[in-house]
Design brief:
The protein has helices spanning 2-9, 14-20; strands spanning 42-45, 51-56, 62-66, 71-75, 81-85, 91-96, 102-106, 110-114, 121-125, 127-128, 131-132, 139-141, 147-151, 166-170, 176-180, 186-191, 197-202, 207-215, 218-219, 223-227, 242-244, 250-254, 257-261, 267-271, 279-283, 289-294, 297-302. With 313 residues, the chain is mostly beta strands. It is globular.
Length: 313
């Protein structure tokens, strides 16, 4: 796959790349005022098995996972694709930490950190109370270096090693604390830009949750932040991944597309894609490009607003 992609895309400039991919560009979506998009949705790469976990570094490169293939890919701002890791232990969610390491939720039971060049890997956490995690799914890193991560049942061994799905906090010192254990398959997780609210996206209900952060790794009582719009004739369908922009607007992937909510939980609009999106992040040099992992493909679309950057040194 890698050789075939490089044969087509290696060395292309960003402008020429968009021209080459114009046949894959979709109709320009209706913009949300003050947010975007400000251009067309473009399919950057395809023919994957199931894409997930996009994360951007400070140079504008975007990394994403192909879970069944056990690969982590890197895409440059010019659109060049390469393999970052060949054996990822079914890595899902990704995010860069303050050290420039790529932190990954491996669904095989651990949270790990890769060096920037991908040549070394260290395990950050692999168990809670002496038992392996179910299948770590998604994560967000706070300004102290602590990691909130979800541990649902997807791809987990049965019976569940932990007995239930949960959300955990891994402190900078390496201590693991279980924070939430009453949600049906907590999936996506993100902090507000001021890090005073933790948002959790369950896949097993339409209600998205918000929790006050009283201190790093300590949450107050949860509340319903918003309720996702549902496909016609269905109810109780949840979300998957999410990201946040500099104004605190949330972008939640769902069966209808990416549902955008303001910080008060008001639906601002829905961004539709050719394939059902699983996860989303802001990337590019100015963090104004939305990168979307959607089933077998990676899409991008230019936005008016920039994404919030976590885990600054």
């Amino acid at each position: 796959m890698r050789a075939r992609i490089f044969g087509c895309l290696g060395g292309l400039t960003a402008v020429w790349l968009v021209g080459v991919l114009s046949a894959a560009a979709q109709d320009e979506p209706k913009p949300i005022p003050g947010i975007g998009p400000v251009g067309r949705i473009v399919k950057l790469h395809g023919n994957f098995q199931f894409t997930e976990g996009p994360a951007a570094d400070r140079q504008g490169n975007v990394y994403f996972t192909d879970i069944p293939a056990e690969k982590i890919y890197k895409v440059t701002p010019r659109g060049e694709l390469s393999v970052f890791q060949d054996k990822s232990n079914h890595a899902n969610g990704l995010m860069f930490n303050q050290k420039g390491e790529l932190v990954a939720c491996e669904m095989d039971g651990q949270v790990v950190a890769y060096s920037a060049d991908g040549k070394s890997r260290r395990v950050l956490a692999s168990e809670y109370q002496g038992k392996r995690f179910n299948a770590p799914n998604d994560l967000v890193i706070d300004r102290t270096g602590g990691i909130y991560f979800t541990d649902p049942t997807f791809r987990a061994p049965m019976p569940l090693p932990q007995g239930k799905a949960a959300v955990y906090y891994l402190s900078p010192e390496g201590k693991v604390t279980r924070l939430i254990d009453d949600l049906p398959n907590p999936n996506g997780v993100i902090l507000s830009p001021d890090e005073k609210t933790l948002y959790v996206v369950p896949s097993g209900q339409a209600e998205m949750m918000a929790y006050p952060v009283e201190a790093p790794g300590k949450l107050g009582k949860g509340r319903v932040f918003c309720t996702l719009q549902q496909p016609e004739g269905r109810s109780g369908t949840g979300g998957d991944g999410l990201t946040v922009d500099v104004k605190g607007n949330l972008y939640i992937t769902s069966q209808l597309g990416i549902q955008v909510f303001d910080p008060n939980g008001k639906l601002l609009g829905i961004l539709k894609f050719p394939e059902q999106p699983a996860n989303v992040t802001f990337g590019g040099p100015d963090r104004k490009t939305l990168y979307v992992t959607a089933r077998t493909s990676l899409y991008s679309v230019p936005m008016e607003i920039a994404g919030h950057e976590f885990a600054k040194p």
